[in-house]
């Protein structure tokens, strides 16, 4: 039943975009400083019906904790980079962060799928953008455009996935209604 509800929600969200197929986040906002399940929804393959063979998500630099979810039938690759200010968590010193996550497998053009990672969001509210490279057997799509002031992601052909990180109190109000 849960899978059916998620499938209906995903289809509705994808239908909301006129150029359907943009890689979007299922949950568009989250509370600052919280753990967030980032579900990247991929609506289809590349031009000409080419199936997707890899999805690479670039993580914004102020997101320091990322745990990608493995997918059956897909391989998972993680790229790490050093951070300027190491910190300690659960008794372990952290000196680097996940900067990119890549899932490699196969998603036929006529299907959609979800790619998931758990993120620890920064304390600072504001919009964060996740550039997503969708590699296909023939070609690729780069969902990487970040809106300029006064524009929204709908003004772009290849917008990056957008997350609005809300101040704690604002997030509580959004989730109450």
Provide tags for this entry:
4-stranded antiparallel sheet, Immunoglobulin-like, 177 residues, mainly beta, globular, 5-stranded antiparallel sheet
List the helices and strands and how they pair.
Elements: H1 2-15, E1 24-25, E2 29-31, E3 35-42, E4 52-58, E5 65-68, E6 75-89, E7 92-107, E8 113-120, E9 126-130, E10 132-136, E11 140-143, E12 161-166, H2 168-176
Parallel strand pairs: 2-12
Antiparallel strand pairs: 1-3, 3-8, 4-7, 4-10, 5-8, 6-7, 9-12, 10-11
Describe the 3D structure.
The chain is mostly beta strands and 177 residues long. 13% of the residues lie in helices and 47% in strands. It has one domain (2-176): Immunoglobulin-like (Sandwich). It is built from 2 helices and 12 strands, in the order αββββββββββββα. The strands form 3 sheets. It has a 5-stranded antiparallel beta sheet with strand order 6-7-4-10-11, with no helix packed on it. The protein has a 4-stranded antiparallel beta sheet with strand order 1-3-8-5, with no helix packed on it. Strands 2-12-9 form a 3-stranded mixed beta sheet. Mean pLDDT is 86; it is low at 3-20.
**Uncertain runs:** 3-20
Under CATH at level 1, the class stands as: Mainly Beta
The helix count comes to 2
What is the CATH topology? Immunoglobulin-like
Principal-axis shape equals globular
Helix content: 10-25%
User: Could you give the distance between the termini?
Assistant: 24 Å
**Main β sheet profile:** 5 strands, antiparallel
CATH architecture: Sandwich
Supply the number of structural domains. 1
Strand order of the largest sheet: 6-7-4-10-11
Task: Write the element-wise H/E pattern from the N-terminal end onward.
Answer: HEEEEEEEEEEEEH
Would you tell me the structural class of the helices and strands?
mainly beta
Mean pLDDT: 86
Task: Report the portion of residues in β strands.
Answer: over 45%
Radius of gyration of CA atoms, rounded to a whole number:
17 Å
The tally of beta strands, per DSSP, is 12
- Kindly report the name of the CATH homologous superfamily: Uncharacterised protein YcnI-like PF07987, DUF1775
